[in-house]
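Researcher: Please generate the 3D structure of the following complex. Treat every line as part of one assembly.
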Amino acid sequence: MGLLSKKDAKLITDPFLDNNPITVQVLGICSALAITAELKASIVMAISVMAVLAVGNVVISLLRNIIPPKIRIIVQLVVVAALVIIVNLILQAFAYDLSKTLSVYVGLIITNCIIMGRFEAFALANGPWKSFLDGIGNAAGYGIILVIVGFFRELLGSGTLLGFKVLGDPIEKTGLYAFGYENNGFMLLSPMALIVLGIIIWVQRSRNTDLIEEH
Amino acid sequence: MEHIELFFKSIFIDNMVFATFLGMCSYLAVSKKVSTAVGLGAAVIFVLAITVPLNWLLDQYILQEGALSWLGEEYAEYDLSFLSFIMFIATIATMVQLVEIIVEKFAPALYNSLGIFLPLIAVNCAILGGSLFMQSREIPTLGLATVYGIGSGIGWFLAILAIAAIREKIRYSKVPAPLRGLGITFITTGLMAIGFMSFGGMLTGGDDEGKKEEAPKTEVKKEIKKDANDEKLADISKEIK
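Model: Done. Output below.
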């Protein structure tokens, strides 16, 4: 990577695995679970969070020497809220159906802990370019988990991916359904998101034993 | 009657944690000990009970389309609902600051044990989520909004209390090493959420939400129905616009 120094590249790649915002830092769980019944919604959510986090990180980083520490939370909230309003209006303008599916969860990006967590932990202490990379990296690490959960829930729950019937037609009994396969409707329900996420954590931590907790 | 129904509905059926996954971050982070969990849960009930009715007033008299008509004829056409995120979060942040000052003054022990999490109530999704759901479900009166706030708060309190108690006990069990801590907490929460789903049939009759849940053959159908209803609502509101 010519454009990025090694340290900068690490800012992007680290949050993917060893320092993933969801499975390791435990930030931003709410939206990760609520909207992952469909892959499409997960992807849109991931992109929205990436836009908000990257831009917000840069703004906060530029303002970091001006913001009085006592009222920083309110300043951060105002910045995020403004960005989220923009994202919400864009979604309503160009993807009205999706914005209905995401309903209040777009608004809840404001209180997504990833955003505040990264503002507090990174943007307040680093320059704009680094903060931008950190924002992209963390949002990507968040997005990848969303996409994985969304993938399994949509595939096993309704037998489709992004709306395409990849496993055949359940009504006309084609594809896998010809052999008696059934969709697991349970996967579409909210509790399964928690369990899928638990299994992802299980897999990740058995591969990387450093992350195991001492109770 | 309506109030009691909404109260129990927001505690059990629409439980903040198990049905809508709100406030998961602090739910996971502060649930290691029952005593801290109780403190945070109480703070959430308190903040929700104040912010939801406050935001209801804001929504009703400032933000909604035509809400400004009390100012005069020429203001009747203003629609400020796109500002609701920023208005709600400002109310919440102010209220949280207030609660923080009060707790610091009157319960320093609690203040020390809650540590960083008290200011984080401001960014707790449960609080903003309570206001946003209040707005999207179009709760009609101030009394109902208050009941909804308190009920959701109690629901969240129950959830964090339950998981904290389970986590204290699970320490003595043989959990597979990679699942320890976070992993098993997720899976336990999932199982608890499945348990809470069985409250779905508790309220029958009354408001139409209850009627819908009268005879759902499978939970999946219920969800689809809910979505369809939301769509209908959105369509209607679109038409009105």
